[in-house]
Each structure stands twice: as structure tokens, then as C-alpha cells.
Amino acid sequence: MSLDNLLGNWSQYRKAHEDGGFHDYEHRWGMAIDLDICTGCNACSTACYAENNLAVVGKERFEKGQAMHWLRVERYWDQSELDHPEQGASFLPMMCQQCDAATCEPVCPVAATYHTPDGLNAQVYNRCIGSRYCSNNCPFRVRYFNFYSYYESSWPEPLNMQLNPDITVRDKGVMEKCTFCVQRLRSAKDKAKMENRKVEDGDVTTACAQACPTNAIVFGDWQDENSQVAKLWKKHQVTRAVTKQKKDNPEKRGYRIFEELNVDPSTMYLERVREKI
Amino acid sequence: MSGSIDRRSFLKILGWGGVGTALSGCDLPSTVTLEEGKEEVVSYLMPEEYVIPGVGVWYASTCTQCNAGCGAHGRVREGRVLKLEGNPESSINNGNLCMMGQAGVQGHYNPDRIRSPMMREAGKLVPVTWEKAMAAVNAKVSAAKGDQVAWFTGSLSGHQATLVANHLDALGSKNHYVHETINNAVWQSVCKDTLGEANPRLRIDKAQMVLSFGADFLGTWVSPVHFSGEYAKFRKQKRRGVLVQIEPKMSLTGANADLWLPSVPGSEGVIALGIANILVKSYSKDISQFPSGVQDLVKKYDAATVTKITGIDEKRLKRIAELLSQRSPSLVLAGAPVEGHANGYNAVAAVMLLNQLLGNIGRTIESAGEFPFEQMQGVAGGTGDLFKFIQAAKNNQLAVAFFHGANPKYAAPAAMGYDSALNNVPFKVAIAQFLDETTAAADVVLPLSSFLEDWGTHVAAYQPVQTVIGIQQPLMEKLYADTRGLGDILVELLKAVNEREYSGFADYYAYLRQAHAAMPSQAKGSGTDEQTWNTALQKGVINITPGAKQIASSAVNFEDPAAEGDAGASTLYLAPSARLGLWDGRHANLPWLQEAPDQISKLVWDSWAEIHPSTAAKLGIKQGSIVNVKSEHGAVKVKAILLKSIHPNVIAIPLGQGHETYGRYAKDRGVNPLKILNPTKEEKTGELAMYATRVSVANTNQSEVVVKMGSSDTQAGRRLVVTMPVEQYQRSEGT
After folding, report:
1. Crossing angle between the packed helical segments B158-171 and B486-497, to the nearest 10 degrees
2. A50: closest chain B residue by CA
3. Using CB atoms within 10 A of its CB, is residue B626 exposed (0-12), middle (13-18) or buried (19+)?
4. Residue B422 belongs to what H/E stretch?
5. CATH number of the domain to which A27 belongs
6. pTM of this prediction?
7. Partner residue facing B707 (CB), from A51, A62, A163
8. Please, what are the domains in chain B?
9. How close A96 gets to chain B, by Cα (Å)?
10. Count H helices, E strands: chain A?
11. What is the pLDDT of residue B704?
12. What confidence tens digit (pLDDT) does each residue in B413-432 have?
């Protein structure tokens, strides 16, 4: 393929949306995060540590960028021209966006990261060989590599008794990331199956959404049109499989970060609002 | 209630129904995996009583990580508590839980817990038996004159407070010193004088506008999880609520404001009077019912004068006054930077004047009503008792002091002379989970069970919706057999001084059951004692509708709130700022909270000094420079962080680090700014004036790497956090 060919026929090559691995999704777990009521308090992030057996790495390794915070709250200053940030800070809870056309997936040499029928971007820990290609390819920088074995340093006895037995503690050489609390999803699905019904909206939520003091995080099955998350996406005129949202009303607050990269994230953010005084 | 039934049996009798049955009575963990290869492996075919392997059940309890009294749910599996969530039954936190609550399990499973009683022998604390420790304590208590016995605690409520009060009563002592570094004692005092009650309900959700002078209600003020919930409603009103925050150093609340303005600590009262002046002059707010002294003050501080004193632009003041008059009802709050001066009371009173002028009393400031059980309400702490305790010790008035839930040795500014005063207290008993500074200086250490292993009742001082009695129940067996709950220790102490009344109680649980049985049925609901008790345990709360009460609004006099003169060029104001996370230092031993980045600076595992880039440039300070911050009473060396979210005349050092002891995660990490504070008192309330210290700052020409989350402080043109002007928002989502 010559460059001329590529440039000349770009629109044919660049599809609106990469075909995902599945077309008959059981669920498509999704999220909506309202940045106007997110206060940046860190409750979500700490809840994630508690739920998902995240290692505490300590100051020296944090400095090297080896922290394992699957969900981190970023803080930006927007008014750099002013003497003071008069409109406060811009907080952004950032975790794996569970992209439908995830850039991390195709580069894995051993298919340790793949797409599930639930619309999740899954990581198979015991298949991972630690090439770190996925992390390198992630535009959100939300994949975390175990450079060390943290079991002893992070959970000296009896702290290890707090570990969530529903999921593993990852060892050296393995990539890990936000799973949308897949262990909670699993048990909700099992429970629904035992009761011979479908998973309903409200049956399950992620640790971050549950902790959030302002309920800024909404989680659910995007495919279930009665779910709160699907309604929010619809209300804010955000849809999937596009690189640019077509909105009748451009004043609707919904947007997806880096959707122009054609990764099709499963998390919608709602714009922060400020009143100029 | 008899003590002869073993624990497992009575749990069974209680049948803690609902989601599951009782706690396991197992040795931990009972169902270990083969991989771990330790203890005996229990067959899944023969489950422990009440333990279904692999099934987690939830039990209600109360979070004690701060004093807000949030309801908690603990997930228990195989006899271990694994995760805490908010309890949806609690009207304080409505099912949500902050980062400190989440980290509660790390205090419980902390590797540095004290595991046995200790006594000082030949200058060193050595392990002893409970019998020996208690015998020593009881001997010293009975040898002392009653009023020579003191309790020094953090805020206490419920039956724990009742028992401490009863212990002192039995001895004929009134020496209960209650300490909280992070408090709102001056605000409470002003509320009491003007509104007739110390903790009226503050309805952020009903306000159209909130003007907050340093009250960090989303982070560290009063009841942060509750206020966060109200804040979400405040923002989602048909007309989005507007938040203006004025404070020396940006707090978490300030970071969420529509307008954040920096102030010099101590100038906030003047700013409030300036706004009052404009409201009276331009928006015909009625000031005639206020004392002439107050009227004169309002007249004195016209906009131009205020601008000259505070540096806040006149236009800004006028705009804030205009907004306040338009967006009604509003709510005006004052926090630690306003309270923390010799005349902090006056400044807070000036802020309260705004609420009165704007007609907020009765609209966004409501009466919390009459709570029928005054004894349960307990005691909310401040810093004033620290002065009183030190004075009593200096005067040789104390023979025995009990310490629990407070760390005065860490919290007292060096200039207060705590250490030398303590030498005059011959016998010090610490009831503690960890060997913090205060505990390490004790003569007897009684190891405390964690809040997840203990019984208790909690009535927070601030009650936002109704009065909630939070029930604390053990979520699992004790990790260490030799630790005891506070209540159990108190019952035992009481038996020694008042055998007649307390010998009937086998332990604290027996006491609590009797207390519950004796509770009026209109308060606990109908049913047998067993039924109402079980309901209380299942729900984790007993809700009491307090007696209706009209809120008062009296026009009280107050003096000029202006702080003493300008700091001058060579000195800066020191802001010992509070962090949601490490709090007053009590959570510095929880690794999740050490590794969680500070919300504003994003630093981890460290102390730092926040300084404005323009000030830093003048002093030749760069990001990471080690600076010497020197007050009249001491100095700390700490790395500088350049941030614009601070007033140029202020240097902020967050609270929480600088522990000399307190376990592996806290020890020898960072600095404690409390140590270098001036021991100035707020004149009216006797509180420590936390924001009244000036410091000189010098570069040491050394520097250190700054360890923080995120390499970029700006979005660099990326659409990460997109901001929409409120006008658009009103069109698309408002009305």
C-alpha cells in the first residue's frame, strides 16, 4: 500500500468504527461521570484500592510512575493566564474506558487482552507475558504494570486479610487495569441466573460509583435502554461507534474523551459547568 | 444479661437476620486456601456455623474515622471484614462513604497495632497482663483524690461518652478534656449566641448561592459526605446553585467554586462586613435591629476601605453582594481560616451577620430541634481544652490522666509546653490501638480493639436531617485476643469505683443491651426488646425525630474583626491546612491514604509547603526547594511546591505528617506544622488561633524531587475536562 493510495482512499480505510469482536453483546457495561458534581475528593479511587486488591507501591516507586491506581483523579489548572485559578480546579476521574475498539487489544502478542461478550476490555492475567505493548498503545494511560511482586511489601500481615478473595493479587510481570469491577458483575449475573431473570439496572454497581459522595458516577448496562446510564447517554446525545458526536443540541454536556481516535470508549463524561462572576 | 453465655451462642440467639445471620466465631481465617498452606484446611462440606464459604454478607455499623457519624456497611466473608460501604439507611451519608471511611479496614488490619497491655518499667514500655495493668490503674485511681483524675479524649458521644462522664462523676471529678484539631468550635459558639443552638442544620441543598469563607464543607468541615450529597442537589437545581469561596489556600471546596478568591488569613471578617455594607447601601437590607456597634462597623467598612485592606477588587465585592441579593435564599459559612485568630469570633459573627441580613435564618439555616437524650449527645471537641489540660498539669492538679482518641503530644504547638507539663502528671494511661506520640509517653498502655471489633453508639454533634443514633457492632472476631473495646474497659473501670451500680454488667455489650432495653419505646419503636434490638443492628441506626423548635435569630454585638496589622514584606502567614485523607494526622498510618494524592497539590507520601509562584520568585525558591519555615516558636524544613491556588502572602503546610512514632507508614515522614504555631488564643472561646502565626521563609539551597501524580498540570489543549458556561447549561438542562 503506497502512501498515495493510503491518502487518496483514506475514507475507505478509515471506517467510522472498528468492528468489535462481538455483535451480539450480552451486556455492554458503560458509565457516565458528571464532572460538574465530581468534587475530586478521592473516595472513588480509595474504594477501588479496597475492592480490587491494588498494591500500595510507596513513594520511591510512585516517583517512577509505577503506582497502581486503576482509578486516578487527575487535577488540571485551566486558567494559566491568571494570577489565581479563579474557577477552581478541573478534576477528572480516569480509569480504563473499556473501549469497544480498544487500541490495546490488537497489539497483545498473546491475546491476553481481549473483548468480552459484556463489552469489557478484559485482561487475562495468567496469559499476560508482560510485553507492555498494550500500555504503550493506550491513549488514556490506564494500564498498570507490576514491575515487582508487591504481595509482601504492600500487604504485611495482617493487612493481607483485607484482600478481596473474589479476585487475584497480581504478581510481577503482569499488566492490570480497571475491570469495571468484573467480580461484582459476575456475581450479579450468577445471582440473576439463579433467580431465573435478567440482570436489572441497580442490581450491580462498581466500587467507585457506590462510594461517590455526590453520586457523580453512574454505572450500568448501556444496552438496556431502561438503565440510568443508557438514559443519560441518550439525554446528552452521546452515542457509540462514532468519532464525532452529531448532536441536535450542541449544548448537551455529554462527550467522550479521545473518541476522535476511533477507540469508542464506554465512558461518557458530562462537562463541568462554571458561572463567570 | 449474663456473661456466662459464650459469644457464639448469644449471636445465635440474636439471629442477626436480614441479609444473613450472625458473625462467624471462627479463628481467622477459617477457610484458608491450600496455596497458603497454613492452619488447618477446612472442608467446604463442613462449613463453620453461619459461614457459607464464598458468600459475603453485609452488616451495618458506624464509621468512626471522623466525627460525622456516617453509617457503614461491612462486607464479611469467611469471618473477615473485607470492604466498607456507606449505609443507605443513614440519613447522614445516604449510602456513600469517603476515602477515610474506605480506609477504615486498614486501621483494623494494620500491622502496627498494639497487641497486649504494656507498662513502663525502668523507663521502657514492656508487655504485661491485663490483670497487672488494670490493677496498677485501679490502684493509682483509688490513691488519687477524685478531682485529680482526668480524661483526655477526642470527641465522644453515645454510651461511651456516658460512661466516661459516669466514671468521672463517681470519682467526683469534672476533668474531661476533649480535643479535636479539626473542629468548628468558634462557628458553634457564634451559632449558639445568635441562633440559640450550636449546630443548626445548614441546608446547602436549598441554597441558591453559597458564599463560604474557608469552610471546606466538601472535604474537612463538619459532615463532608452529607454536605457533598447536598452539594450535588445544590448544583442540580433548576437554577444551578453558585458557589463562591474566599480563603487563604484553596481547599477541596474552593477547587469546586465558580469563583475562588484568595484572602489573607484574618481579613475574612472585614470582607464580610464590606459585603454587608453594600447590601445595606445598595440593596436596602435592614440593619436597624442590630446593635449600634455592629451598625458602626458595617458603616466603617465601605467597599473602598475593604479593598484597601484586603486587596479584593471593589467590583468583585459589589458583584458578590449583587448575587447574594438576587440568589435567595443563600448560605454564608465560615471555616478554620476565619476562626483561627485572636478575634476569630468577631470574624465569624460578621459572617453570620450576612446570613441574618439576607434572611437565611429559618430558610437555609434551620433548627436541628431538641434531641431528647442530652447525655447521648456527648461532647464535641475543640482546641481550647488543650490549654486547660496543660494548665491543670502545670498546676500539679492531675494525678491520673486517661487518654483516648486524641493525640495531644502531637497536636500541641511546642510553645504550649505540653511535654514539660506532662511531667507533672505522674500516671498516664493510654487506651489506644497504635503507639502514637501520646501513647508512647504513657505509663500504662491498654490495647484497644478496632472499631470493627467493638460495640458502641454514636450521636454526631451535627445532625443534618433527624437525630441519628449510629449503632456500632463488631463485624468480626477480634484479631488479637488481648485487645479490648473502650466500653469494656470503661465498665471495668467503673466497677472499681462504683461496684454497686456496675457489677451487674458482665461487659459493655450487656450494658448496651440494658441501655437499649431501658430506652423509651417511642424512640426505639414497638416490639420486644429482642425485636427492636435486632432491627437496630440490621439498620445500623435508630432515627429520632427531634422535638420541633423554632430557630432564633438574635442581633448580637461583636467587635471589629480586623486582624492586627500587615505581615510586612519579610513574613508570611502560615496556613496549617487540613486534608481530607490524613485529617489531623490520625490517618497517617493508613497506606491507602498516604498513597492517595492530595486533592490539590497531587503529592503523595510527603509534607510540603504551598507557596505562590510570585512569592517564590521573590525569595528565590523553586519547585522542590527545601525551605526553612521559621516562626517565633520553631522552624520546619520542608520542600516548596509552587501553586497559584494560594494567596501570595501565605504559605500552607498541610496537617497530618511529621510523626515521631505511630507505625511504619507514618513515622519519620514529613513535618508537623502544628509544632511551630504561636500559642495564641481566640479571645472569646479560648480556642487555639490556628491561623495566627507568621513565619519567615528562607531557601536552604537544597532541593528534593517532588513525588506527585501526573506530569502535566494543564490540559495542553486536549479535551479532557471540558467546561461549559452556565448560560448554556441553563438553556439545555435548567429552566
Report:
1. 20
2. B83
3. middle
4. helix B418-422
5. 3.30.70.20
6. 0.93
7. A62
8. 7-112+450-544 (3.30.200.210), 118-182+374-447 (3.40.50.740), 185-366 (3.40.228.10), 571-703 (2.40.40.20)
9. 14
10. 9, 11
11. 96
12. 999 999 999 999 999 999 99
